[in-house]
Structures are given as C-alpha cells and as structure tokens.
Design brief:
Layout (H helix, E strand, L loop, with lengths): L11 E6 L2 H9 L8 E4 L8 E4 L1 H4 L9 H7 L4 E3 L3 H15 L6 E5 L2 E5 L4 H4 L4 H15 L6 E6 L2 H8 L7 E3 L5 H6 L11 H9 L5 H6 L2 H8 L3 H10 L13 E12 L2 H21 L2 E12 L4 E12 L2 H14 L5 E13 L11 H21 L41
Parallel strand pairs: 2-4, 7-8
Antiparallel strand pairs: 1-6, 1-7, 2-3, 5-6, 9-12, 10-11, 10-12
Helix pairs in contact: 4-6, 11-12, 13-14
C-alpha cells in the first residue's frame, strides 16, 4: 500500500528575513527606510549588487545587477558596501529570538532558520503554530529591528515549510497541511518549488510532468525509474507528501576561501601574496574549531573563464598557516602558466587538533612550536584587529579576500563568502 500524505499536525517552521542585508542597512540608517537600497560588493560602477531592498526590487534591481545599471534605473539608489559584523549581530539576535521558543534551532544561512516546535514549551502551553509564528514576527521587530520583517512557513516537514515561507513575500505567514497541499501546489510553477531549478524542471517536463500538481501525482516508480533514475526520485516522492527526509545536520566537509583578482595576474609574487592571505584566513577558521586537516585543494579560474584545480593529501596534519601556504604553493606551481582571475584554497579531511599524535620522524619540537606560534598570532589578531601580525609575504594585499558573509549553508556565521571584484564579470 502506497504511503499517503502526512496528516500530522505541522510542527516545522521555516523563518527567513526579508531582503536581509539591505533591510539591515535600512534598520541601521533610518533615512534609507522606504527607499531603494543596494548592497554591493564594491562601491564601483562595475560592482555587483549582492542584495536589494524591496523598493529596489520593485524597480527591477536584483541580485547580480551592476551598480551602474542600478543607478541608471534609479539615480537616487543608496549603494553601500557589505558590513559583515553588522549582519552577524543581526543573525545572533535572530537566533536568540527563536531560541526563546524552542531549543531545536537550525541555521540554514545568514538569514534563514528552521525550527522544530515538537514538544516545545510554546506548543505545550496550548498555542497554535500560527500564534507562535506571529509572536516570532513581533519579537523580531522588537529585538532585531523595527524595520526588519520576516516570512514564516509552517508545515509537517522542512521542504513544505520552506515552500510556505516563500508564498507571500514580504512579511508573509502561511501554513501547508495535507488538507490544502493540492490547492497550494495548483497555484505554483515547478521552479517555485525549493530545489527545482530549470534543469530539473526540464527533466520533469520530458516525462510529461509540467506542474507541481502533476509532480505530486506522479508515482514513486515514475520518479525513481524515469525522472531521477535513482533514490532521489524516492526522496522527492516523500518530500512532496510532507514526510521528513531533509533533517541532515552533517559536519562541515571543507573550510576555504577564494578571491577574485581585480585584474588578470600571472606574476608568482603577487599570486603568492594572495595565496598567503587566503591560507591565513583558512588557517584561522581551522584553528578556531580546534581541528587539523589532512587534505588541501587549490583552484584557479583563468582569464578565459576556464578552470583548473588539484587536490593533494597532506604529508602531515595541517594546522599552522605556513603548512597550508607551502602546500598551496606546490599546487599553484602545477597550474598552467596563464593569466589568473580567481584563486581559491580549501582544506578537508578534518580531525580534532587535541590530543595530537606526533610522529617520531616529523620533528615533534618543531611541530609543537609551529602550533604554539600560530595560536599566539591568532590571539594577537583577535585582540587587536585583523592581520595586525602577518607574514611579510602578505604585505600589499590589504584589500584582498576581505571579511564577508556566507549566503549558503553554514554551521557558524563566519567568513566564507565569495569575494567579488569590481572587474569581475
């Protein structure tokens, strides 16, 4: 017998802030409230808009629009560069609000959380999910900012809760249950479903599935054998019916940074300076978690937009910045000798840094000293400011790989976003 819709009372809630970065800038600057605002990677005509306020979106200014294009559409638009500490504080306050309602709080990005209210004091007090949703909205106004709004989606599983949160932006609150599931899906397009992009939409249409309602009606066999050709089809079959299969809280697999070079570069000295800074930022985050890494990857993008990358297993556990940098240099030396426009460094294969297992052949005293020096430099920089103490090779790259905020999945609001260049296409 096939599994039906999940008829359980919804207990999952997806909450996301509306136009997060731009709204926080409006909160911080009262004069910009109600006006078009664009947060751009660089205040430069060729800079890219990373976030637009709803007033700007209404004019057609969105993610990816260049600053000069936004100013042509709206000469009075307020352009501001990102302020990561401000956004992290907003995220911290956002989380604090949600944790007053339940301890089961999961960050999906800087501006999105999923909370499970099953067994929470809020539910046990007899409140409805809708009432709790409106209380959260009010608490965000009071604690995060009066200019800050959020969307709330309520459903039996994470997927439908996220879908519900996007139904009536901005400042919406919607509930999807087994009773209104078909009606809700009948009003949407395939690409309105979280996780269904144009490629997946095209794959569904090839099999005669043109709408979300037809997607829901498709058999498990069809989705597994014809559309997705594997277990992914089974997951979608369950997901659409309200069954939870997305409660994944895996550990971070990679820590890294990348930087878009302002002008195509092939000079080893300049590239090594950028590599050193990327290695330091990566090493700092690795040490903050008290991890070591046993693998490293280096990637580059060339001026013709082709890519090259290579990974290697580290001969010893990576902890100090110098270890990451020296292996990164080895990989960079293997890259084709062409003009580079983007450089990225990442480490992986993690293990706890303590207790450490040292080899008789590595020179235990040297390894211990390297770690001690790395920790000491981190303490100085954490106390007195970023890169107060830095290797000489990093001199001259003060503006490279600036602090920024991650848009995607994260487990700690930190420093891993792509850095955009004014000249980047």
């Amino acid at each position: 017998m096939e599994l039906g819709y999940n008829t359980a009372t919804p207990r999952m809630m997806h909450i996301d802030l509306n136009s997060c970065f731009a709204t926080i800038e409006q909160q911080a600057n009262r004069r910009q409230r109600g006006r078009p605002v664009g947060v751009a990677a660089y205040d430069h005509p060729n800079g890219i808009i990373l976030a637009a306020s709803y007033e700007a979106k209404a004019l057609g200014i969105k993610l990816g629009t260049r600053v000069k294009e936004a100013q042509a559409i709206c000469p009075g638009i307020y352009i501001v560069e990102p302020d990561p500490p401000k956004y992290r504080e907003a995220h911290r306050r956002f989380r604090a609000v949600l944790e007053t309602f339940t301890s089961d709080v999961t960050a999906k990005s800087i501006d999105e959380f999923v909370i499970d209210l099953t067994g929470s004091l809020s539910i046990n007090s007899g409140k409805t999910m809708e009432a709790i949703g409106f209380e959260i909205k009010q608490a965000i106004h009071e604690y995060v900012g009066e200019a800050v709004n959020c969307n709330v989606g309520i459903a039996p599983n994470r997927f439908l809760a996220k879908l519900a949160a996007g139904l009536h932006k901005p400042d919406g609150l919607d509930v999807i249950t087994a009773d209104n599931l078909e009606r809700t899906l009948s009003e949407l397009r395939l690409t309105d479903l979280p996780g269904i992009n144009r490629r997946f939409s095209a794959r569904l249409k090839v099999e005669g599935i043109y709408t979300p309602l037809e997607f829901l009606a498709a058999t498990r066999q069809t989705l597994m054998m014809q559309v997705f050709r594997g277990i992914v089809g089974h997951y979608w079959w369950l997901r659409l019916r309200g069954w939870e299969i997305d409660d994944k809280r895996g550990e971070r697999r990679t820590i890294g940074h990348q930087y878009a070079v302002p002008r195509p570069e092939r000079t080893p000295k300049k590239l090594n300076s950028v590599l050193a800074k990327l290695s330091e930022k990566t090493g700092r985050r690795l040490r903050e978690k008290q991890w070591v890494a046993h693998g490293i990857h280096l990637g580059v993008r060339f001026a013709d937009y082709t890519h090259w990358g290579q990974s290697m297993r580290a001969p010893k556990a990576l902890y100090a910045t110098s270890d990451i940098f020296h292996l990164g240099q080895q990989l960079l030396a293997r890259a084709p000798k062409r003009e580079i426009t983007l450089l990225s460094v990442g480490v992986h294969y993690f293990a706890p840094a303590h207790p450490e297992q040292l080899s008789f052949f590595d020179g235990q005293r040297n390894v211990a000293l390297e770690r001690y020096i790395a920790d000491a430099m981190d303490k100085v920089n954490n106390t007195f400011g970023e890169f107060v103490v830095q290797p000489a090779v990093m001199m001259g790259v003060e503006t490279a790989a600036k602090d920024a905020i991650a848009f995607g999945k994260l487990d700690d609001i930190e420093k891993s976003i792509l850095d955009w260049s004014p000249d980047e296409s």
